[in-house]
Amino acid sequence: MMTVLIAGAGPTGLTLAIELARRDIAVRVIDKADEFFQGSRGDGLQPRTLEVFEDLGVLDQVLAQGIPLPVMKITIGGHPVGERRMADPVDPTPDRPYPNAWMLGQSRTEAILRNRLADFGVSVVLSTALVGFTQYDDRVVAELSTGETVEADYLVGADGGKSAVRKQLGIAFEGTTDDSIRMLLGDVSADGLDHDYGYWFAGPDNPMEGIALTPLSGGDQFQFGAPLASNDADTTLEGLQFLVDRYAGEGVTKLRDLTWSTVWRPNIRLAERFRVGRVFIAGDAAHVHPPTGGQGLNTGVQDAYNLGWKLADGREEVLKTYETERRTNAMRVLGISEDLMQKHIDGDESAMDRGEEVQQLDISYRSPDATAALTTGDRAPDSPLTDADGNQTRLFTLFQGPHETLLRFNPSTTSTHPHAVTINHTPQPGAYTSPEAFTYYHAGDGDEFLIRPDGYVG
Question: Residue ranges of the FAD-binding domain (predicted)?
Fold first, then answer.
């Protein structure tokens, strides 16, 4: 049986572990932390991540525990000046069932993923760091801080921006860290503010410099964000209250119950490689993003979603596409995040606007010279289906699981593929009808599309 060791139990490591465990691959997840992270940190889940979570069987919990993007109340110099959203809500369409971002604190997302992983009999092992490893032609031997030695077919470093796996591999982590820009982030309750809204408080001289309070689901806390003008950072409750009083005015709100805080600096880096032999890196170990655009956690989840089925396949021609596909995508996403960060620095009023470029629904691994409307490497759209008895279902429901799917549009031949789905113009036993699917796939009679396990056209 194949075995995989994953270092790091954040969203990336947990997603990968679920992907492997549901394919009956022996997986072990270790983390050097003594306890699970508690805090909101990466709290924005993009539409493509929601589609991934549906496939993993956790979307219902994510939707139940989270909230939509809030309306932000804008106050400048103590005077309310209006309301705005980062993005206006968009109605779902049959091919894009989850078109809007969803807000859920990172620690709650991780808890949902851990519970799903436990369904497969796998638990995270805390207080266990990766000390070192040695690669051989057929295995990786890892030394753990507990003194244990572990043999695995593959090792994956999902161990964050300071990744021990990446460092031992000697992979360059190219990019910049800007120490001139610093922000104080935290999770805190705020008496006197309506928790159904977010807030932006700024002074009259510079409306783009201020503090943001964004509601967090599951209680009365907000995620607090404020710029720091000096090298001294007071991350205590008193420090946050000082900043609130400075930008919102004294008496507007009283903060309490600070449960997490950190000082953030713009750190934009991309690993030179995502793989060396039998060792891979993913998530923040491979790329780190500014929080602008909410791309970091989402990109890591999709690294794992891309890598999981490829590890299970095990063929070199499949494994080698992980770095090609995901590093190219990470480079693109870093560009989006960096552009949004620069807008914040420049005081651009559009810095808070979010469009389709951050939703990750347009991620594609297609060849640069491909011209077809839908081709190899593109996201496979969802679509409603009706069987011969009139029962309704969706393509995403048929895609769900660790398998690939062969879509056959009005075929004239039979297929032995174990997960073939036939879509005809008229009802027939063992087949579906869906005018929408013909449209979304730009399909003609006899066309076939092989859908990869990660929901992209193969």
Answer: 2-334
User: Do the Cβ atoms of 41 and 353 come closer than 8 Å?
Assistant: no
Instruction: Reply yes or no on whether the pLDDT at 356 is more than 70.
Output: no
Compute CA distances 124 → 3, 34, 121, 145, 279, whole Å.
15, 11, 10, 15, 20
pTM higher than the cut 0.85: yes
Of 221, 198, 208, the C-alpha closest to 86 is 198
The residue count of the chain comes to: 458
Rounded CA Rg of the chain: 23
Structure tokens at 375: 């081709």
State pLDDT tens for residues 10-67.
Answer: 999 999 999 999 999 999 999 999 999 999 988 999 999 999 999 999 999 999 999 9
Residue 209's alpha-carbon distances to 120, 137, 174, 388, in angstroms, are 47, 54, 29, 60
Q: Which residues contact 217 (CB under 8 A, 6 or more apart)?
A: 65, 66, 67, 103, 104, 105, 108
CA–CA dist 63, 21 (Å, integer): 23
DSSP reduced 3-state for 343: helix
Alpha carbon of residue 458 to chain centroid: 22
Q: Which of 228-232, 291-295, 343-347 has the lowest mean pLDDT?
A: 343-347
Question: What is the rounded CA–CA span in Å between residue 429 and residue 232?
Answer: 71
Q: Quote the tokens at residue 120.
A: 């497969």
Q: Are 396 and 57 in contact (CB under 8 A)?
A: no
Please report, as a single letter, which amino acid is at residue 350: S
Helix residue ranges per DSSP H, 186-295:
237-248
Contact 10, 160 (CB under 8 A): yes
Instruction: Establish how many alpha carbons lie within 13 A of residue 359's alpha carbon, considering only the half-sphere containing its beta carbon.
Output: 20
Handedness of CA 249, 252, 254, 258 (dihedral sign): negative
Q: How confident is residue 343, by pLDDT bands cut at 50, 70 and 90? A: very low
Q: Which residue in 288, 337, 290, 330 sits closest to 306, CA to CA?
A: 330
8 Å CB contact between 104 and 45:
yes
**Contact yes or no for 159/149 (Cβ under 8 A):** no
* CA-based nearest residue to 409, from 386, 453, 441, 454: 441
Q: What is the DSSP letter of 430?
A: T
- 328 contacts 299 by C-beta, under 8 angstroms: no
Give the Cα separation of 225 and 212 in Å (integer).
5
